[in-house]
Batch of 4 targets.
Target 1
Amino acid sequence: QSVLTQSPSVSGAPGQRVTISCTGSSSNIGAGYDVHWYQQLPGTAPQLLIYGNNNRPSGVPDRFSGSKSGTSASLAISGLQAEDEADYYCQSYDSSLSGHVFGTGTKVTVL
Amino acid sequence: EVQLVESGGGLVKPGRSLRLSCTASGFTFGDYGVSWFRQAPGKGLEWVGFIRSKAYGGTTEYAASVKGRFSISRDDSKSIAYLQMNSLNTEDTAVYYCSRWYYDFWSGYPDYWGQGALVTVSS
């Protein structure tokens, strides 16, 4: 079972801004562990999108941004494009489980 | 170019064993930790386990769901990491991904992923 909770789906028209939330607890995000985000395009392996809460790897457009506050984190996609249609997952370390945990995943649909 | 390629997947009967390989190229394999993940059909991502680089002892960590059944090892001379899976059950059916791990176990993250290997456990 996933320890981090995400909304199942979000949608937006091209050019709009959407946000995806990732809610954890005091044993993971709230304990200060970093949050990382992944994009999984249909039928492909996940790809690193955001690391260390708000950092983008080289090659990731600046339309993607991350933030963290308290026991939650968020991923924002501005200027939504058709190629952004994918599943998005957050991930962090959980001290109670002594392991890494993922969010439940959010499907982004571009209308 | 960093590449990771999983191999060894397939159909296996419940209770049997299977070993996956993760062959790396494009970087100094021995300098990095390696993590394994899985994704059951139509489901989300699950962390399976992790092995540190030899510089940090080469020690391993496992998710509770696989601890005692799965083990991870590495052969730095061949740039290969292995996932040995024993006592498989139907709930282990998934696509298994290996990844290069950046930074330490607690704050780090998988920065490159393989394409995945499908493991189907069925009688």
Target 2
Amino acid sequence: AQSVTQLGSHVSVSEGALVLLRCNYSSSVPPYLFWYVQYPNQGLQLLLKYTSAATLVKGINGFEAEFKKSETSFHLTKPSAHMSDAAEYFCAVMGENTDKLIFGTGTRLQVFP
Amino acid sequence: KAGVTQTPRYLIKTRGQQVTLSCSPISGHRSVSWYQQTPGQGLQFLFEYFSETQRNKGNFPGRFSGRQFSNSRSEMNVSTLELGDSALYLCASSWALAGGPNEQFFGPGTRLTVL
């Protein structure tokens, strides 16, 4: 069965510091992987997705993620955190021939001035 | 272009009642999925509809049901509400193109509180 694991339910960084949010996947076949962001009292917004076209995926708001098959990882990074990045981030996997998303438990990012 | 809309945004019910939540997908989208979000269980898949047919179902009791209409709008129903059904219910739509993956566009959710 497919699944994703997010390490660290809370991550705190200073404004301008590197953001690193960790996600490991478990899948018997090459997966489709996604990162979503959720701001308070809002739905989910897609940051980026991996569909096997390229291992380094660039998303919105300066975020990017690298697919590493050898490490079964898809970590999300941003070189310089901004106060507006404070939100909850979810890693998710989608199977083939379905729109069903399986989400990780989420990581709450706090950004301090 | 209008996004995914969900009505109502907030709902308060008492135990034992039933509730119906509505989702209008982005125009042209043919697939609608529902998710339940709670602090304890996180984001869990409820069901997925495509062309008025349930294509996938999550591990929820039969009190949770849904349907999709010919215009792709979807409703989900929860009967005999329990306190544990208090959650944010999110709807997502996609083009449902063959070959995937199809980007899911999420609505703002319906916050259900069961007293």
Target 3
Amino acid sequence: EDKVVQSPLSLVVHEGDTVTLNCSYEVTNFRSLLWYKQEKKAPTFLFMLTSSGIEKKSGRLSSILDKKELFSILNITATQTGDSAVYLCAVEFWSGGGADGLTFGKGTHLIIQP
Amino acid sequence: KAGVTQTPRYLIKTRGQQVTLSCSPISGHRSVSWYQQTPGQGLQFLFEYFSETQRNKGNFPGRFSGRQFSNSRSEMNVSTLELGDSALYLCASREPNTGELFFGEGSRLTVL
């Protein structure tokens, strides 16, 4: 059975700290790994990763994929209270008729304290 | 450009009833997928539609069904509601060039 496991499930840090969120996966016919940020509403897209070893950056956020070891990390530097959210990792895989739906991890609930 | 629109945003039903949720994708997006989000199970894939055809289906009972119309709008239906169907139902449409998923705000269903 395909699965996506995120760790830690929850994390509390102080503003200014750097955090690393982990996502490991076991899927067949891997297509891509995606990170989303979810506050009190719809998940918003952060990154899509398809190739190993290529870091994607957006401001204080960055992510990298290791397709050999089947994991990805999401780093957030100089955290701010606005970074408080649930961070979701999802893996997309191919099926015969097109891409399957995403398999999501349970998420990491990140709380940034002032 | 309008985002993904889901209606209704909130609804309360009782066990045994049925419910229909609607999703209008971003203009130009032909793929629509549905997800159920609960505190215990997280986000789970329900099904995906493309050009009015169901392309993939997750591991949900037959009480969960959906359809897509020629204008790419999609509906999902849950019949014979159970307490465990209480959840946030999210719809997402896929950008055809990049494959990125854009989520709607969700329909929060409470079954009493």
Target 4
Amino acid sequence: DSGVTQTPKHLITATGQRVTLRCSPRSGDLSVYWYQQSLDQGLQFLIQYYNGEERAKGNILERFSAQQFPDLHSELNLSSLELGDSALYFCASSVGVTGVTGELFFGEGSRLTVL
Amino acid sequence: GQNIDQPTEMTATEGAIVQINCTYQTSGFNGLFWYQQHAGEAPTFLSYNVLDGLEEKGRFSSFLSRSKGYSYLLLKELQMKDSASYLCAVMDSNYQLIWGAGTKLIIKP
């Protein structure tokens, strides 16, 4: 157990819909990262927050948005969903901007299926 | 641009040794990481190298050569449970992690 909690674990929805994925980082971790992993693909970095502020942005679509709240939990909002958005969405956390050694602790992921 | 290359897939035999290579070209270097990811599961941290040389941790070892932009992960005494994808990631000068696409390791009895 990494200490990172993601909900929901599984989500099935239709094209055009909007969903919200939630992540609670490990206790004491200030950084939250979101990654997308499509079937048999590598990890695609979406966005990072540090202590409530956006720290870095990757290949995140305009239809996607995220935020980190004062209690440090984070939400990833995906709107106008398309079939290609079906993927595993991972949240990860670290102590600092990158952590002492940069080690990230990953949640179990939210599997999104768009029909 | 920034780039990390690793083989897409490798096959090895139970009990044997396998070496997974990773080459990188990044804007600066602040460390290289190896993660293991079983299918459908979260990646888990294996090793971190920031200085040249070999880091050994049980059956797993990781090597780094910064001058060559090269690392490898060495897995000894392979077990069936080692069947997984192995992800190489480099921390660049902005302390951002650049990820390779991963190497799928298949272990055969």
